[in-house]
Amino acid sequence: MPTTTGMKGGGYYDANSRVQRLTSEALIPWMEEAITDLPEPSPDQQSWNFLDIGTSEGANSINTMNHLIEFVRRKSELPVWALFDDLPTNDFNQMFLNLFPKSAPALSGTAVYSAAIGGSAFGRLVPPKTLHLATTYNAIGFYESKPSATLPNFVIPMIPNPNAPREGVHVSPSELIPFQKQSYQDLYQFYAARAQELVPGGKLLVQVYGKTETQSTGHGIMDVLSDAFLDFVEEDILPRSFYENFIFPAYYRDLDELTAPLQNESELSTAYRIEHTQAYDTRAPFDDDFASTGDRKTWAQSYTSFLRAFTEPVVAEALPDELIEKQLVDKIYQRIEQLLAENPERYEFHFISIAALLTRL
Ligand SMILES: C[S@@+](CC[C@H](N)C(=O)[O-])C[C@H]1O[C@@H](n2cnc3c(N)ncnc32)[C@H](O)[C@@H]1O
Predict the structure, then answer these.
(1) Chain CA centroid to CA 361, Å
(2) Distance, CA 222 to ligand 1 centroid (Å)?
(3) Distance from CA of residue 12 to its chain's centroid?
(4) What are phi and psi of 136, to 5 degrees?
């Protein structure tokens, strides 16, 4: 069973994912290079087939797809299939509304056809050897299935941020091992599925939230989620067992972990050539605004909305029904906003991306 039902829908994710858009736009030069290098589709194909995986409601995905279309139109007038995948529970209604707003189709250019695919990134999504380019942004850090290992003293498989210590919050390196293994296995499945789907010479552009030696995308966001939960445990609003059993089902990899299956698995090392790898830090627009205005209330609101867009479905799913009825979801995010406004330094955020551009051999 997938670990999330998707992002918070009805346009909420689109409205609160400006930083995610910047992380994908940072890779426009790789997109251009990938398209320039693509071999012509074989005569029996008659189209360019591009797939973005983990699109959510689509605004960011359509934005990057438009760049790909612009680049491919410099070399070819062949029709384009723009394919968008996410989990079946994703808000695809919003995706189609985004694709076809009242004014004009959101995908620019002529002979561009779009379709949505419901299915997991870690399994097969299209027939063999049909894709010229597959992309994924900010998606494949989510686990394929809920980890069976537990972490009673934190909310996500990572060493907690040393800059935001709290009594009782800790994770040991050995506790992380089963989570690291599961994350490796997921990534292996992801690369293996794409190897089947890409044509020879096809490209795979992978970007996901991750970590470096000193910083993790989880710093700040997971600290404040954990602090809000623990406050509610201490106030007897949440049972301690909720905190002990809760795991946000994502893993922040470093660059070595992103490429490890490509190097260790012979079936993958012969399937792909690694063209580029990169780790980079993207500054969130809410941090830019805060730096210029000093308005911590507005900063805390925007930070909370950004966090809520991708965590709420998981938090709501984990809460017992009787607590949902007491509007606990809203109260958790209100507490998060309050904690942020009171102590911005504790929850400093860095969006660390890890990325790779691969060629199918
Ligand atoms: C943070 S959003 C990223 C959306 C968009 N790519 C962006 O960069 O703004 C992550 C998306 O990955 C999707 N996702 C999570 N697990 C997935 C899986 N196993 N297969 C496909 N999509 C998945 C979620 O449903 C969600 O829509």
Answers:
(1) 26
(2) 18
(3) 15
(4) -155, 135
The dihedral through the CA atoms of 122, 265, 281, 350 has a sign that is positive
For residue 3, what pLDDT is reported? 75
Angle in degrees, 0-180, between the axes of helices 296-318 and 285-293, rounded to the nearest 10? 150
CB 2 near ligand 1, within 6 Å: yes
CA 137 – ligand 1 centroid, Å: 8
Predicted confidence (pLDDT) per residue in 145-174, tens digit: 999 999 999 999 999 999 999 999 999 999
Q: What is the structure's pLDDT at 322? A: 84
Q: Is the entire prediction scored with pTM above 0.90?
A: yes
86 ligand 1 Cβ < 6 A: yes
Q: Which residue has 């591009």 as its token pair?
A: 50
Partner residues linked to 352 by β-bridges: 281
Alpha helices by DSSP H, the chain = 12-15, 18-25, 28-37, 59-73, 92-99, 173-197, 221-234, 240-245, 255-264, 266-269, 285-293, 296-318, 321-325, 328-342
Domain at 12-216+248-283+349-360, CATH class: alpha beta
Q: Which segments of the chain have a pLDDT < 50?
A: none
> Which pLDDT value is given to residue 108?
85
Going from N- to C-terminal start, the domains of the chain cover: 12-216+248-283+349-360
Identify the pLDDT of residue 197: 98
